[in-house]
TrEMBL record:
It comes from the Bacteria. Keywords: DNA-binding, Transcription, Transcription regulation. It holds the Pfam family Peptidase_M78. Residues 12-66 form the HTH cro/C1-type domain. The gene is ramB_3. Belongs to the short-chain fatty acyl-CoA assimilation regulator (ScfR) family. InterPro entries: Cro/C1-type_HTH, HTH_RamB, IrrE_HExxH, Lambda_DNA-bd_dom_sf, ScfR_C, TransReg_Diox_bact_type. Gene3D superfamilies: lambda repressor-like DNA-binding domains. CDD domains: HTH_XRE. Coiled coil: none annotated. This is HTH-type transcriptional regulator RamB.
Length: 473
């Protein structure tokens, strides 16, 4: 501490005002002049070790309080000013430090106000979804990042892009009918554009899945990726070159508000195009119907991953040539929803997907196993759901692997078309009652309830305690 300069003027001022002392009175108690105390409070002089000891003795001040009180406030302020609504307000972090140091109480109040705003924004969003489900349009919306805008737009549209399907079919004809799509794409990239594909070790590409070097005309892939994922990255790069105009037309049709959102959408559409290239529409649909939508059979037949085959099932809605209308949701272990899409758009109003009782959350306890379940919504709608974990890029021994879980669902009335329908009890039996999300669900006695519904007042009765942590009337 002897060599460390501690500037704690605002904290000294707060201690003095809390005790109702003038600068003269406090200076006398510390054995210093009022002018020197004034300089300390204005952060123009540091605290010395003898002065810290006098503060601790005379006013019972914890020395640690004088050194690091602003740390938590600063971290919380960073959270506030990372919000899209405020991200452009500060030129740098020094102003945050100044606020946290000079006015920690005001900083704490600002953080509380921001968190209350986020809580109310979340409640308004839930209320908006509930009203939309009842057919009442609202204009309620919270501040969104570009990725949130892209996800929202894509979730509400049918997950079928006929323009990209036709381009992918034309591209397959150019590549030929051989079974080695990876080899055909590598040959096409080299012969048509002089691009060589190389797989590099983790040490060389620690942070990337795919990187295209324009100077050397080489496409680098990480060895972390499984063969199906490596193929998809090659197909994405080829699609961005071959289908550039078609992808641009689809991006423009989304009417996004920023260049960053359009860039993100371009990647999502390139991934769609890659799936259409790897799993051509008509052969994939025919194979799916013959196999009764057995995803493991499809992944083997087309040399793709479980996630790729499941995602492709949500796109089979070509007019007069459609399959079962699936929708899909991917979550991580913390319950964050990473992706949602559907053949007819993701059914927010009917299904939601925020219920903690869904099998997609239980899947993490049984990695690699497909969990089949029938669920019933409060309005009587019934769905067949499949849930399974997905493994991310392969890590090293000392790295924690990325694991997410996928939920694939369709109307329960389609159960006879699916091989998974046989895993369910007889019709009407063993149906799990779920809800769209806790805040929108009014089911009573739910052991899994995490939040009270926005549509009911809390039932605060000292004489009665329900099964849920949030009793409501």
């Amino acid at each position: 501490m002897a060599n460390q300069k501690i500037f704690a003027g605002p904290r000294i001022r707060r201690i003095r005002t809390a005790k109702g002392l003038t600068q003269t009175a406090m200076a006398e108690g510390l054995g210093i002049s009022p002018s020197y105390l004034n300089l300390i409070e204005r952060n123009q002089r540091p605290l010395t070790v003898p002065l810290i000891l006098k503060l601790a003795s005379a006013y019972r001040v914890d020395p640690d309080e004088l050194q690091g009180e602003a740390g938590l406030s600063l971290a919380a302020l960073r959270e506030v000013f990372s919000d899209p609504l405020l991200a452009g307000e500060l030129p740098g972090e020094q102003e945050l430090i100044d606020v946290a140091e000079a006015a920690p109480n005001a900083a704490s109040a600002l953080v509380k106000l921001y968190r209350a705003y986020r809580e109310q924004a979340g409640r308004l969003t839930d209320l908006s979804e509930m009203l939309a489900r009842e057919g009442r349009a609202t204009a309620i919306s919270a501040a969104r990042l570009p990725i949130d805008e892209v996800r929202e737009v894509l979730e509400r549209r049918p997950h079928h892009l006929e323009g990209l399907e036709e381009e992918a079919e034309a591209f397959r004809r150019v590549l030929g009918d051989g079974e080695d799509l990876s080899g055909a794409l590598r040959s096409w990239l080299r012969s048509e554009h002089g691009i060589a594909v190389r797989v590099l070790p983790v040490a060389t590409m620690p942070n990337w899945r795919r990187r295209y070097d324009r100077h050397s005309h080489r496409l680098f892939l990480s060895e972390r990726l499984s063969p199906p994922d490596q193929l998809r990255e090659i197909a994405i790069e080829a699609s961005l070159i071959r289908m550039r105009a078609a992808i641009a037309i689809e991006v423009d049709a989304l009417k996004l508000s920023s260049d960053e959102a359009r860039r993100l959408a371009r990647f999502e559409l390139a991934r769609y195009a890659a799936h259409a290239l790897m799993m051509p529409y008509q052969p994939f649909l025919a194979a799916a119907e013959r196999a009764r939508y057995d995803i493991d059979v499809l992944r083997s037949r087309f040399a793709v991953s479980f996630e790729q085959a499941a995602s492709r099932l949500t796109t089979l809605s070509r007019p007069a040539m459609g399959g079962v209308s699936f929708f899909l949701m991917e979550v991580d272990g913390a319950g964050n929803r990473l992706r949602r899409c559907g053949a007819e758009g993701y059914p927010h109003s009917r299904f939601g997907g925020g219920c903690p009782k869904l099998a997609v959350h239980a899947a993490f306890a049984q990695p690699g196993r497909i969990l089949v379940e029938a669920v019933e919504m409060p309005d009587g709608g019934r769905f067949l759901t499949l849930a399974r974990t997905l493994e991310g890029p392969h890590g090293a021994f000392d790295e924690r692997p990325r694991r997410t879980a996928l939920l694939l669902a369709c109307e329960l009335a389609q159960r006879e078309k699916l091989i998974y329908g046989g895993a369910l009890p007889a019709a009407g039996d063993g149906v799990m009652p779920v809800g769209p999300a806790c805040r929108l669900c009014e089911r009573t006695g739910c052991l899994s309830r995490a939040e009270p519904p926005v549509t009911r007042p809390l039932g605060l009765d000292e004489m009665v305690t329900g099964l849920s942590a949030f009793d409501f009337q």
